[in-house]
Design brief:
This protein has 301 residues and is of the alpha/beta class. It contains nine helices and eight strands. The structure holds zinc ion.
Length: 301
Amino acid sequence: MNIIKIILMLSISSCWLSPVAAQTDFDSERAFEDLVAQCDFGPREPNSKGAEAALKFYRDTLEPLADEFHLQNFLQDDPYGDRQLKLTNVIARFQPEKTQRIILCAHWDTRPRAEYDEYFPNKAMIGANDGASGVAVLLEIARQLQNAPVNPGIDIILFDGEDYGKSGDLQYYLLGSRYYVNHPYPPLAQQVILLDMVGDAELTIKVDPVSYRSAPRLIEEIWLLGAEIGYDQFQLQVGSSMYDDHVPFIEKGIPAIDIIDFEYPGADNKYWHTHDDTPDHCSPESLDAVGNTLLSWLYQQ
Ligand SMILES: [Zn+2]
C-alpha cells in the first residue's frame, strides 16, 4: 500500500520537473550489434562452445577499454550431471583506485533448456533478451566510460550461471553473483545496478519490489530521469518481485536494484524461457532507453 502512495506522489511531482536534455553518446545501433553478435555464438550455457566464444568476445571488447580486467574462474559440481561446471565472471574496472564505486552488472550465460517452449523445451536457448541484452548495454557503456569517465569508480561485471537452475531449484540460480559477493575485488561498491531482459521491443520497465525495498531513492532517480528524457518505457508502477543477481548483494547489505522488463512482450511473458527469445523480438530503441538513461544518471553522480 505504501509503495502505491509514494508512486502516485512521484508521478504528480514529476510533472513539475522541466525536461532535461540529458543526452549521451550511447550508440544503441552498436549495442544492438553486440546483442546479435552474442546470439550468433549460439547458446552460451556453462561448458558450451558458445560460452567459450562469448568469453573471448567479452575479453576482446572490454580489456582494451577498462583500467583493469579480470576473468574470475571458478568450478562447481553440476547438480544435474556427473561433471564440473566451468564458470567465469567477467570483470572490467574503471578507476579501480576510487573508493566511491558503483557496480553495473548483467548475466551473460543463457539457459541450457527452454522449459516453456512448446516444441523444444530441452534444447539450450540463445537468450537474445534473457542474457545478451543487458550485456550489450554494458559493453556500450564501457566504450562511453573510456571516452568520458564519470566521477565514481565503475565495475562492470558480467555474471555467469545466473540462469542454470531448473524451475523451482532456486539454489542453482545466481551462481556467478553468489560467488562474486564472497570473492569481491576491493574496494567494494556501495551501489549495484543490474540489467536483465532490457531488450524487449515492447519495453515496459516496472519496479521490482525487492529492488524498491533495497534502494528506493535510486529507483526513483533513474525512473524519473528516464521519464524526463522522454522514455515512456520507465513506469513507476509495481511489477513482479525478482529473484535475480541483485539478491546476493542485498543479502550482504549492499543496496542493489534490478532494471528488468518481466513482461516479454506482454503480461503473459510468452517469449520468456522459449526459443522465441530472439533478436527480432528486441530493438535498438529499447537498448537506447536503458543505456542512455543509465549513462545520463552516471554523469550526474
Ligand atoms: Zn532467464
